[in-house]
Amino acid sequence: MKPIKKRLLTPGPTMVPERVLEALSRPTLYHRSPEFKEIFLEARQRLRRLFRTEGEVLILTSSGTGAMEAAVANLFKPGDSAVVVVGGKFGQRWAELCRTFGVNPITVEVEWGKAVAPEAVEAAVRENPGVKGVLIQICETSTGTVYDLEEIGRRLKNYPDVLLVADGITAYGVYDIPTDEWGIDVAITGSQKALMTPPGLAVISLNERAVERLVDNPPAYYFNLKKELKQQSKGQTAYTTATNLVVALNEALKMIEEEGLEEVARRHALLAEATRRGVQALGLKLLSERPANGVTAVIAPEGINGQDVVKIAREEFGVTIAGGQEHLKGKIFRLSHMGYVDQFDVLTGLEVAEFALWKLGYREFSLGDGVRAAMEFFASV
Amino acid sequence: MKPIKKRLLTPGPTMVPERVLEALSRPTLYHRSPEFKEIFLEARQRLRRLFRTEGEVLILTSSGTGAMEAAVANLFKPGDSAVVVVGGKFGQRWAELCRTFGVNPITVEVEWGKAVAPEAVEAAVRENPGVKGVLIQICETSTGTVYDLEEIGRRLKNYPDVLLVADGITAYGVYDIPTDEWGIDVAITGSQKALMTPPGLAVISLNERAVERLVDNPPAYYFNLKKELKQQSKGQTAYTTATNLVVALNEALKMIEEEGLEEVARRHALLAEATRRGVQALGLKLLSERPANGVTAVIAPEGINGQDVVKIAREEFGVTIAGGQEHLKGKIFRLSHMGYVDQFDVLTGLEVAEFALWKLGYREFSLGDGVRAAMEFFASV
């Protein structure tokens, strides 16, 4: 049967709710108009509540990587050192950004799929006096691993000069994260993940300590956070922002508030657990030893190329799932359950994986085994 | 888990493709503009190809029932007799319409869920000389039954004064129906079924014989088919038509042509067969002895009210399925697989039915049995 529908079960861009698409298509507002200003300030307030922070939250017109760049360029000076946790592609990105801006990355290497030990992060900080920050992921999307930021934050509270900068791109909206309470000084996310909005906006939070650290003349023009902060406090942006996307994001944040952040987090936890049980019922193994609730990385069976699973899913079934990156390419495939996803989407993801694996000759299961395991889990909660 | 998405698995309105929604939201056109005229004529041509007719096809701004009324009011005169096949709620509707317009309905009663015997239709015509038409469904939606219109049409070819008027509301776009070849003189459908468009438009085809039978002064003002025919041949309508819906319908018809009518029919056949196998694997019985490809009517298990299945599906899972009508209320539930539906929607329908039945205490199956049976079928074709 030719695929007649397209479904996004990727870890971003994710599926966009009809309400958000409708908001996106409202007439474009002038970015300096009072009408837009109100929506912009409202979205910033909602983001503060999402992040559970008393600090500042800035909206940038860029991908999440833009906000990562902004963090490195605006919070560190050339010659500074920062501890960088590298346990996947996005950890590598922090290190690359440091090198780009003359910051010395002291890397804590973690086997891809494993979670960094909080004590290893603390040890790196302790053993490198003068280090100015820790750059880390909350969820390392490339491996589907969630790190223990609560414990890491607790340990770093003893190091007042060390900023904890967390890429939470696939964590905010998946988990209910008390940013301030955990001692995360700077946190980042993107519109196209659990925020259920099309790509194009990044979000960065800054607590008081982080605001104080903002440099005056960063090696950046567009990503000048001090300038943004000054403007955004007034409901303005330094340069033209993606006004339609901001309106859409505000609508998506409304939906998250209506569902309730606790319920949103609970939903993601259930969807993730069902996915894990489903793939394990197929005789497959998870890549991650500490699997994230936004995306599940599955080790492809012996002799099967994970990229072929992705290709069949998309071409024959119209469902986009993700493959592996870097050295994991071909070794894994990733099922996302992030954002505008419910139990039936998770079951669809498992069905697609089953059909694709079956076609590729992996038959160490009966068709439906993964779905059944997930259904039994859903029926039990 | 609270339902966060809404899915329509009802036999109309059905799910609307994103492309069609986009077309619907284009700026409203003036119904007498050249731009609209072109689209209107294009949609009529596409409908002719869909119906496989050399006859006329009119678009009415009404529900399908409006087109049924138009047929009775414009093709028969008070005092005429017509054979009416009554095997469900929509057969009853033909009879009610006859009585409303002073046409004498000679009913061929069929047990709900059974298909009318073609010989019974012919016998009624033969035994009632002077009868002016046969009013019938192609699919009786209330019971999920498809009648053998090919054979009925073949038998009626011997009765040149008898118009075969077929309600194909849940048949066109589900099946590839050669309207002219089968001798269907008048056929009707609605936008909100397999045509994948929101409710609001009805379609009626008229072959030459039917056009000749159109009365001059029907007991109708809005539904005056002679007047419509005159206007619509020029790309106009007698009264204001739902212009946005026509634009949307034209887009949906484009999608059907891109997929190909044969493939569309094949898809529906596969979806229907998978649904049947799925529900039977749960130990359930189909209501229909000749099940239609657009909707599957399932007999609720002993002690379970079909309406409760529908209620749980909608309230707890956000999925709208249909219950029974008239004396079947509570006795059945109906899973639609009509229009913008693929294999994963069918599996979702089975999952919802399984979850709901399970909650209601019917456990003569293991969770996932229906889904597995359907998956095995999909993997085999």
Please give a structural write-up.
Two copies of one chain form a homodimer. Chain A has two domains: 7-14 and 260-380, Aspartate Aminotransferase, domain 1, CATH 3.90.1150.10; 18-258, Type I PLP-dependent aspartate aminotransferase-like (Major domain) (Aspartate Aminotransferase, domain 2), CATH 3.40.640. Chain A has 381 residues and is α/β, with parallel strands linked by helices. Chain A has 13 helices and 15 strands. The mean pLDDT of chain A is 97. In chain A, the strands form four sheets. In chain A, strands 2-10-9-8-5-3-4 form a seven-stranded mixed beta sheet, with helices on both faces. In chain A, strand 3, helix 4 (89-100) and strand 4 (104-109) form a beta-alpha-beta unit. In chain A, helix 3 crosses helix 4, helix 5 (118-126) packs parallel to helix 6 and helix 12 packs antiparallel against helix 13 (369-380). The two termini of chain A are 34 Å apart. Chain A has helices at 18-24, 34-51, 64-75, 89-100, 118-126, 149-156, 208-213, 225-232, 243-259, 261-281, 306-317, 343-359, 369-380, and strands at residues 7-8, 56-60, 81-86, 104-109, 133-137, 139-140, 145-146, 163-167, 186-190, 202-206, 285-286, 295-299, 319-320, 322-323, 332-336. The interface between A and B is large, with 38 and 38 residues.
List the keywords.
homodimer; 381 residues; alpha/beta; Aspartate Aminotransferase, domain 1; Aspartate Aminotransferase, domain 2; 2 domains; four-stranded antiparallel sheet; alanine-glyoxylate transaminase activity (chains A, B); Aminotransferase class V (chains A, B)
